[in-house]
Design a protein that fits this description.
alpha+beta; Nucleotidyltransferase, domain 5; two-stranded antiparallel sheet; Tc1-like transposase DDE domain-containing protein; nucleic acid binding; RNaseH_sf
Length: 130
């Protein structure tokens, strides 16, 4: 499993997660990766963070963390069962298909991780600018 962040301006970090994402694990990612990304890319404080309503994202601990940091950036609440309009879905699809044209295809977790990181860094702006 991977976690990543991007904005209209730039791609942020992509992280490899060794285990299932829980609310607690999610909150351990946010201070070091989301918070620093938002402070750099949206130093004017006008950045708006959007996430889907996955269970770890909607957990009490994650909601509390986002409320505590609401002065640093805004959080766009994603309504449950709403149509997918999140740009990360297109990016996810591109990552899922990143290994299709590789010869030989990734056969180890480390090789797959390398392929995903490379694809993440090579994504053209059309994936995150609409």
């Amino acid at each position: 499993m991977v976690w990543g962040v991007c904005s209209w301006r730039d791609m942020g970090p992509l992280m490899r997660l060794e285990t299932t994402l829980t609310g607690g694990r999610y909150v351990s990612i946010l201070p070091n990766h989301l918070h620093s990304f938002m402070s750099i890319v949206h130093s004017d404080g006008l950045g708006q963070f959007q996430q889907d309503s996955a269970t770890p994202h909607a957990s009490r601990v994650a909601t509390k963390w986002l409320q505590e940091h609401s002065s640093d950036f805004r959080h766009f609440h994603w309504p449950p069962k709403s149509p997918e309009m999140n740009i990360i879905e297109d990016i996810r699809d591109a990552l899922l298909h990143a290994d299709e044209n590789r010869s030989p295809p990734p056969r180890t977790p480390m090789y797959l991780w390398t392929v995903l990181k490379d694809k993440w860094c090579e994504l053209p702006p059309r994936y995150f600018r609409y």
